[in-house]
Amino acid sequence: MFSCIVIQYINIELCEDPHLFVNGISAHDLHQGQLGNCWFVAACSSLASREALWQKVIPDWKDQEWDEQKPESYAGIFHFRFWRFGEWVDVVIDDRLPTANGKLIYCHSNDSNEFWSALVEKAYAKLCGCYEALDGGNTADALVDFTGGVSEPMDLLEGKFIQEQEARNQLFERVLKVHNRGGLISCSIRATNQADIEARLDCGLVKGHAYAVTDVRKVRLGTGLLAFFKSEKLSMIRMRNPWGEREWNGAWSDSSEEWKRVSKGERERLGVTVEDDGEFWMDFEDFCKYFTDLILCRMINTSYLSIHKTWEEEVMRGSWCRHDDPLRNRSGGCINHKATFLQNPQVCVCVCPEDEVLICLQQQDKRAKDGKGENVVIGFDIQRVELNRTYRMHTIQKTVGSSIYINSRSVFLRKDLKEGRYVIVPTTFDPGLQGDFLLRIFTDVPAACKELMTDEPPHTCWTGCCGYPKLVTQVHVHRADGLQAQDSDGASDPYVIISCEGQKVRSPVHKNTQSPDFDVKAVFYRKKPKEPIRIQVPVFQESLGMLLFCNLQCWG
């Protein structure tokens, strides 16, 4: 609820020398006002530390800056850009800002004549419908809107990072990598009830409150020359409270004794200050002890000119549409609704070779209309299918991965997938719901993504003379045992070929094994059901000195 306040609008008399930026841009320029949008201010604080990113949000900022030498060039409007649903959206606002008693009531800077943070907030409020729409939100969404990246929310309680040092070390390396490669990071302590929101703990941290992560480092311990030869380093993380005050007061807080273990030069390099400015350092073990939620917003590298890992991005747009005809219905609900689950959109993805795949499903934000509306619960399943599938599934296959189902704007999943073909099924939790979605898929090599649109082979002008399939057969080759070596050196790299009516499906090669787990499927739409299906595995025949095929024929 908003208290009753008299709102006025900024005019030129409020300050004599207004500027977009004063002495550059930094996380310290932002202080949360009377709006409950710490999630947005925390995201802005993270953005302020990345020049390449904030210049996308505030384009041509030099041309928008107030020039006291040319006051006639000032138009009183400002231009911002935000990434929404797969594209950058331009937002233009005027320079009128809500005030009370001559002061800004919402986001503001330390410097009374600096207004970039207040103007970005107004532009984002316009994008979302109104200022009230910013009262409570998701930091992960704001980070994506500022960058076009992919946000991965992490539950630190589920990961057991407090108890397991190895898991904690691996998490720190992930956080460090995201930070070093230009990503944005936020964190919070979960509030379990309404009374917990913005409750201050004895350690100085605030529950139900978003913090911006502004630095991640391995800090060298020790002083003097010997410190350069010591290998002991401490995993550290720096955060900022959007309120600009109320800091962590435990180990490695601004004036704690622990900083005596670090050289003066190292402290200066880290920017350690003894000020109640809302920014503070923690060691990563304490971080995992107190914080419950972490958001990593990755800038996915798709450049071929990079020394770091590059990704191939596929973007698929689609809709959940309700229809009375089951073959045309595209709103079947989650896999709990088995009768209608496969009536959802189906997106085919080829993974080759075995690879880590990043998948993000996003829905249109219903909050953006007049600050009202609730997002529906969404998620997706990944089904491993036949290597030659080109038509929609009508039988549920093997599920190899599933996202969480939640009523957020987007859901994310990172999954290691074996070489093969998969179908991603994006769904709402309940059947019958409608809306648009955006599916982003990142793989190591192009994944040849396409939506499966047709249910069966089409009838053509040749159907009358060439015939039409009478039977659909799925073949699943699980494994082979006791295969002979394929060459005279004793090596064995087997594969299997499944063929029917002139169509052939070949499995990936399994290196250096005589008992391969093929786990490969093929599907055939058969015009001649009496013709056999042939399964072949290459076998080296030592007596003949040549490679032969072990054949198996079956009918069905």
Automatic annotation (TrEMBL):
Any one Gene Ontology molecular-function term assigned to this protein's record: calcium-dependent cysteine-type endopeptidase activity
Keywords for this protein: Hydrolase, Protease, Thiol protease
GO biological process, one term: proteolysis
UniProt-listed InterPro entries: C2_dom (IPR000008), C2_domain_sf (IPR035892), C2_III (IPR033883), Calpain_cysteine_protease (IPR022684), Calpain_domain_III (IPR022682), Calpain_III (IPR022683), Calpain_III_sf (IPR036213), Papain-like_cys_pep_sf (IPR038765)
Ranges for domain C2: 454-556
Active site positions, chain numbering: 38, 209, 241
One Gene Ontology cellular component annotation held by this UniProt entry: cytoplasm
Top-level taxon of the source organism: Eukaryota
Family matches, as PROSITE patterns: C2 (PS50004), CALPAIN_CAT (PS50203), THIOL_PROTEASE_CYS (PS00139)
Residue ranges annotated for the Calpain catalytic domain, each copy included: 13-300
Family membership: Belongs to the peptidase C2 family.
Identification of the protein by name: Calpain 5a
Organism for this UniProt entry: Cyprinus carpio
